[in-house]
Description:
The structure is a single chain. The protein has helices spanning 5-12, 18-25, 35-49, 53-66, 77-89, 100-111; strands spanning 2-3, 32-33, 70-71, 116-117. By secondary structure, it is mainly α. It folds into 2 domains: 2-71, Rossmann fold (3-Layer(aba) Sandwich), CATH 3.40.50; 77-120, no CATH class. Residues 1-127 form the PIN domain. It holds the Pfam family PIN. InterPro entries: PIN-like_dom_sf, PIN_dom.
Amino acid sequence: xxxxxxxxxxxxxxxxxxxxxxxxxxxxxxxxxxxxxxxxxxxxxxxxxxxxxxxxxxxxxxxxxxxxxxxxxxxxxxxxxxxxxxxxxxxxxxxxxxxxxxxxxxxxxxxxxxxxxxxxxxxxxxxxxxx
Length: 131
């Protein structure tokens, strides 16, 4: 399962749907995210909890360890899959209106052949398998 920044942020700030995400993650034998998603979550968490970006980054690192979520490198191939995703689902001409960050998340989930766990309903309008 590839975990999006929105889920990390929701779980770490105890949003309303945090427990639902934890339940959905529980049966996954593989849990992973990218450095981009981890730092995107850290920036959101820093703003929500009034922490410095460094403090939030350390909190994310600890959370990933506790939840057994692997932090995987963004593979070079993901750059090209991101471009394809942006062309197909990007903000310009598709109802999903994926941002560049969203397209990179899509590309990593696709590259690692994992279902995507995200808070965003935009991914429902793509062909990515959802968790």
